[in-house]
Amino acid sequence: MSDCLFCKIAAKEIPSTMVYEDELVYCFKDIAPIAPVHYLVIPKEHIACAGEITAENSSVVSHIFEVIAKIAKDEGIDNGFRVITNCGEDAGQTVHHLHFHLLAGVKMGWGVDAVKPE
């Protein structure tokens, strides 16, 4: 999509701090982190949200989770991490391009305000 922020970031039309990239996936640091490690992992293909995952595009989601595991290992994230995706405005989705928040580096609770530095 020509007006999608994350499509532009993946195409390197908008700068970001890249963590990982391959032919299907782009991972970059969140500009407003809520944890010491806060990365966004996105498919390069535009998929609006989890509600638009289909049999035709689900392989990229599987690949994203493989990439998340690789990033966690490469970054030495040994004490655990959290992966979050939001689908729709009521769930807090502000950029309508499927993305997964990879959070780590702090002990997390549970709930909507669960990431709180100690």
Distance between the termini: 40 Å
Average per-residue pLDDT, rounded, comes to: 92
How many distinct beta strands?
A: 5
Major sheet details? 5 strands, antiparallel
Q: How much beta, percentage-wise?
A: 15-25%
Helix vs. strand class: alpha+beta
Order of helices and strands: HEEEHEE
**C-alpha Rg (nearest Å):** 14 Å
Count of DSSP helices? 2
Uncertain segments are: none
- Which bin fits the share of residues in helices? 10-25%
In what order do the strands lie side by side in the largest sheet?
1-2-3-5-4
- The geometry reads as globular
Account of the 3D structure:
There is one protein chain. The chain is α+β, with helices and mostly antiparallel strands and 118 residues long. The chain is 19% helix and 21% strand. It has a 5-stranded antiparallel β-sheet, covered by helices on one side. The mean pLDDT is 92.
How do the helices and strands line up, and which of them pair or pack?
Layout: H1 5-10, E1 18-21, E2 25-29, E3 37-43, H2 58-74, E4 81-84, E5 100-104
Antiparallel strand pairs: 1-2, 2-3, 3-5, 4-5
Would you kindly provide a brief summary of this structure?
Helices cover 19% and strands 21% of the residues. The protein is α+β, with helices and mostly antiparallel strands.
Q: Notable features of this structure?
A:
alpha+beta; 118 residues; single chain; globular
